[in-house]
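Researcher: Let's try something more involved. This one mixes different molecule types, so please make sure each is placed in the same coordinate frame as the others.
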Amino acid sequence: MSFDAVAQQPKLLYLLQGVAAFAAVVSLVLLALHRGPVRRRAAALILLAPALALLTIGLLLPGLRTLALSFTDNGGDAWVGLDNYVWMFTDHRALVALRNTVAWVVLVPLTSTAVGLLYAAAVARSRFRTFALSLVLTPMAISFVGAGVVWKFVYAYRPAEAGQVGLLNQLVVAIGGEPRQWLVDPPWNVLFLVVAMVWTQTGFAAVLLAGAIRAVPAELTEAARLDGASPGQVLRRITVPSIRPTLLVVLLAQAVATFKAFDIVKTMTGGQFDTGVLAHEMYDQAFRYGETGRGAALAVLLFLLVTPFVAHQVRARRRTG
Amino acid sequence: MRFGARLALAVITLAVTATACGTPRDSGSPSRTTADCAPYARYGKHPGTRVTVYAENRDREADLFEETWADFADCTGIDVRYEGDGEFEAQIQVRVDGGSAPDVAFFPQPGLLERFARAGKLKPVSPGVATLAKQGWSADWNSYATVDGTLYGTPLVANVKSFVWYSPTFFRDKGLSVPRTWSELMAVTEKVAASGVKPWCAGVESAEATGWPVTDWIEDVLLRQQGTDVYDQWVAHEIPFDDPRVIQAMNTVGSILKNDRYANGGFGPARSMASISFQEAGTPVLSGDCAMHRQASFYADMWPKGTEIGPDKDVHVFLLPGADPASRPVLGGGVFTAAFADRPEVRAFQEYLATADFANARMRKGPYVSANRGVDPANAATEVDRLSIRLLQDPRTQFRFDGSDLMPASVGAGTFWKGAVDWIGGASTRQVAGSIERSWPRS
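Model: All components are placed in one shared frame. Result:
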């Protein structure tokens, strides 16, 4: 494939225009601030104006439109009141997605943070810390779609008489068991999807927590150890209390990421076998089934569910920052 | 050299190379004008115009399409820009809502086409296309792209779904003959099962579309047991989804697919089909681990490389039989073209796609089936394509379109597929059919 500069010329021109427009806005803002005496409040407003305008166009208006759409029918034309919300809490599929989302949001942050914490505590003061951390961080470098494909292979099913292609069933067969269809039987299949998500998230937790653990004064843990505390006690009594703010930030960030989980479900099961989650169900309803109203209602619900987490995170960050 | 100078030089070199690389393609096109332009004269000249095409076909299928209309594009001067997208069904909505609708889209489901037609987004076909549609296709085929009496498009691709793939050698070794009636089919099934081989192979895993092979089975059997009228009423929801006649068809399918003695050959118990992709499900036919695999004409592409298809080759097909040898119920699917724009060049392109000339030219390039009356089966690339075209052209054929593609998407691509999977997993027929009926949109 060659890059044809001539054929790409219109796009390059747009790019140039965009950069020029951006530079112009920034210069205007700076110029306005530079000239004459401007009060602090006005200065802040001028500096914020571009960001506020973009937020309005990119976030606020679409959000309001989604809210309006959630009260309309499938084509987005006729007003149907609360029908879509009633549907959401009565339809089997939507309820399953809601149930699974709750399971995900409880399991993913807790598991990945717990595993990450143990891993970080184990390697934080070791000589191979960098190597060990980069090892556990590698899955994060893979996209969720990639992770989904990888884990789909791990769970692949073949009958007992045929050769296994899935790692997990190969292990089961090796210890003399019958191969199973891991992704087919609810509710356990949800757990197998959660494992894939945890796999991608643990590295993030481990790296952040390892940083926090190293910030705990070494004298403290040394003194505890001299007093005869076991490694477990050191972790429980000294390390965890000292890194509590970081733990909270990690947990909340993971929870918010988990609410948005979509790619893993889409690549591994497509929401079949009762494995759907809210974000995936929203996509199916809005785009695959043309049920715009229902999709919008699910989006509003997702927004309402995420809000407390985000709000808490902002407050926590303000306190620590 | 200082770093800045080196960087500048690198950028210049890169720019020069990029331009140089771009040139051969431009200088290459004039040599293509050797094509005979006489057949394209009736579409007129549209120099400097562009038609964008959006469809789900990628890779080889996309290349074959582009090769087929290359002469048309050169002779008319229309720059046909093709874009294939595996997420077509979801993204077409985004494209249209976002104001960047393609000029022409290839819809794999009439239900989706109808949604855009009802929303007023699609343009009705030109009188020229309407005439070609009437000439080329049966009233049945044209009805799929007709919404409230207005024709919005023409069929582009067709496929026959009611085929059973089998191994002629296996049949010969076991002393079986190709069944011509449903009872003969069940006799063959029982005979194979008695010999210790599971007669049927089936896999229904297909990512988000998991379950569709089962819905095809149910549609096929309903069409055979109750005929076209009841089938049409069921698809249009004039009778409930869980009508006793539908339950009966489902139970018949269940007696094969949910029966551990009959399925799933080479892959374990019947419920294993949920984990086996429909593409690989048929391969045990080759090893003799199952005798039959009911799958569409396009399954020809999914056999392992080197598999030969024909009456005395590795695999071949027979039509899933009806009640008696004379009946020819055929379930099929297809792709339809429709336009979001109404410019002369778009009309010319749509007109070309609606001709038998296009279908014949496309068939000469590789596997392809069209339901156009004007296609010549002799052009078909494979034995199965030839058989499909003969079936589609046979006036005795009772053709019906894949029901799940005609139902509202939330049922046809949602609860029906999902329900089919639950059903294979062990849920009762009545329970599954009832929940699909309750999921039918009210509006």
